[in-house]
Amino acid sequence: MIVVLRLGHRPLRDKRITTHVGLVARAFGADGMVLTVRDDKIKEKLDDVTNRWGGNFFVEFSDWEDYIKRWKGLKVHLTMYGLPIDEVISEIRKYKDILVVVGAEKVPSKIFKLVDYNVAIGNQPHSEIAALAIFLDRYFEGNQFKRDFKGKFRIIPSNHSKIVFVKNRR
Amino acid sequence: MIVVLRLGHRPLRDKRITTHVGLVARAFGADGMVLTVRDDKIKEKLDDVTNRWGGNFFVEFSDWEDYIKRWKGLKVHLTMYGLPIDEVISEIRKYKDILVVVGAEKVPSKIFKLVDYNVAIGNQPHSEIAALAIFLDRYFEGNQFKRDFKGKFRIIPSNHSKIVFVKNRR
Predict the structure, then answer these.
(1) Please, what are the domains in chain A?
(2) What is this model's ipTM?
C-alpha cells in the first residue's frame, strides 16, 4: 500500500495545491492521502473524481506524528535537501508499503529524522506536486499509466479531439 | 529552446499553481514561461528564485494565439485527452525548439487544432504541474537533474539533514 501524507495543509491558502497533490497521488497509483488538518471540501472533491473516474482512492485525516510513528512500512520524505531519487529508487522499490510524506513550504525539522529516506527530485526549488509525480513515476516505472481504473468515464486518446466514453448505468 | 505557455492564468485564484508551473519549468530544464495575462508578482517570484538558485529562466507576457502562431518549432499541448506520452516522446525528442502549452481547468478548444501534438500524461484527471514535470523528465531522460545551475545557493544532498552551500559574493 502506498499512502501520501500531506503536511501543513492550510484550508484556504492550500486548497488547490493540496487538491492537485491528491489527484496526482490517485492518478499515479497511490492508494490514499492523509491530511494532517481536517478539510471536508478536499475529501469531497477527490471522492467525486474517484466516483466518476474509478479506482478506490481514500482521503483521511490524522495527526502527522502519530501517523508516521504507527506506519509499519518504509517512510520516505520528499524534499529538495534529500538524496537524489535515481540513487535510491531501486532500494525503495523493494518495499510494498510506503508512506510518502510531502510538505508545504515549511516542514517541521523533526520529519527529517523520523523517516527512513529523505529523497530529492532534483535539488532545485520547485513543487511538491511535481516531486510526488516523479517519485511515483520512478517507483512504478511508468506502468501506472497503463492501469485500467474501470471508471464510469474513460478517455479515448486522440491527437486532435476530446473523446470521452461514458459507461451506461443500469 | 523549450518555452512553457501557461494558458488561462487568473491572478488571484491561480497564483500558487502558476508559480509551481514556472518553478517546475525552470527546475526541469525549460528556458522560460509565457503567461497570457500580465502578473508581475509571478514574474518577481520566479526572477527571485533564478537570482538565488541560478540559470537564465525568463518570464514574459503575450497573447496566446499570437504566440502559438508565431512559434517556429514544434507545438505540444499537454492534456488528458491526448496521445500517451510514451508513444510520442521519441518523435518529439527529435525537435530542439518546443512550445509546451499547459492549460488551467478550461482551455479554448481551438488549441487542440493549433498544436502539432496533444499529449496525455495518463488519461486520468490530475495536474498541469505534474503533467509538465513528467513531460520534461521524459524529454530530457532524467538528465535535467544533473545540470549545474551555478547559483548563489546550492544544496549538498544528504539523507537526514538540510545542507545549503551559499557562495560568497565579492
Answers:
(1) 2-166 (3.40.1280.10)
(2) 0.96
